[in-house]
């Protein structure tokens, strides 16, 4: 996580049942807000609010999924792999490990050449 990570903000976000459920549900496959609404038992507007909170901390990413009939919709995937919180003399140190996207892997590979 970046240097300016606010441990309290991440902890507060993860206290929320819906935010945690979104992360768990989208960990293995991308899901639409409608599907997440059904699985989490909350309104779509609640799902969108939590997704925005998760995006602020780079814990969720979105993609547009195109259907054969020409319609398209947004799906969400968790980028979170793990969170480690260490107690230090100065407070808490938060380390967030994210899954690296294919594009990020490619960019890193090219930059390392």
TrEMBL record:
This is Winged helix-turn-helix transcriptional regulator. Pfam families: HTH_20. It comes from the Archaea. InterPro entries: ArsR-like_HTH, WH-like_DNA-bd_sf, WH_DNA-bd_sf. CDD domains: HTH_ARSR. The lineage of its organism: Archaea, Methanobacteriati, Methanobacteriota, Stenosarchaea group, Halobacteria.
């Amino acid at each position: 996580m970046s240097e300016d990570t606010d441990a309290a903000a991440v902890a507060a976000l993860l206290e929320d049942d819906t935010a945690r459920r979104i992360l768990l549900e989208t960990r293995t496959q991308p899901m639409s807000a409608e599907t997440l609404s059904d699985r989490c038992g909350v309104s779509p507007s609640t799902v969108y609010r939590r997704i925005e909170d998760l995006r602020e901390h780079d814990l969720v990413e979105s993609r547009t999924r195109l259907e054969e009939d020409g319609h398209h919709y947004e799906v969400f995937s968790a980028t979170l792999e793990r969170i480690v919180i260490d107690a230090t003399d100065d407070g808490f140190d938060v380390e967030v490990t994210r899954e690296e996207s294919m594009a990020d892997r490619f960019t890193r590979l090219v930059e390392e050449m």
